[in-house]
Amino acid sequence: MRMRISVAVLLLVAGFAMPAAGQGKGSKKYAVTTDQALVVTKDVLVKQGYEVVRVENRGRDYVVWYRRGNKGRGKGKGPPVRMVIHRDVDRVVFLETPSAVLVDIDVRLKL
User: Which of 16, 61, 78, 86 is the most buried (most CB within 10 A)?
Assistant: First the structure.
């Protein structure tokens, strides 16, 4: 009985230690202009309660820095987080984007 519990705990801990494939941070490609992708990204972030800190143009990439607002609770703002919008030849690719944000961006860009 004790052996089964320790094996179960070991498997559980090993499952948490492995990187998860579906926890955001994925990439999706869209056939839109970078200006349109940037406008939609900013709009989605603001509607989800984030504050867009700055947007940097780094060659073929736009780096969008954003952070969580305090939601009126007076707890301060979250740390800055980055999202990368990569410009390809005829596509825009979102990198390092949380899945909750990417879902809303996906809906808006496919209209």
Answer: 86
Contact 96, 80 (CB under 8 A): no
DSSP codes, 37-53: HHHHHHHHHHHTTEEEE
- pTM exceeds 0.85 for this model: no
- Where residue 61 falls (left for φ over 0; alpha for ψ -120 to 50; beta otherwise) is beta
The answer to whether the CB of 48 falls within 8 A of the CB of 98 is no
d(CA 108, CA 43): 10
First-to-final CA distance of the chain: 56
Domains and CATH numbers, the chain: 24-109 (3.30.310)
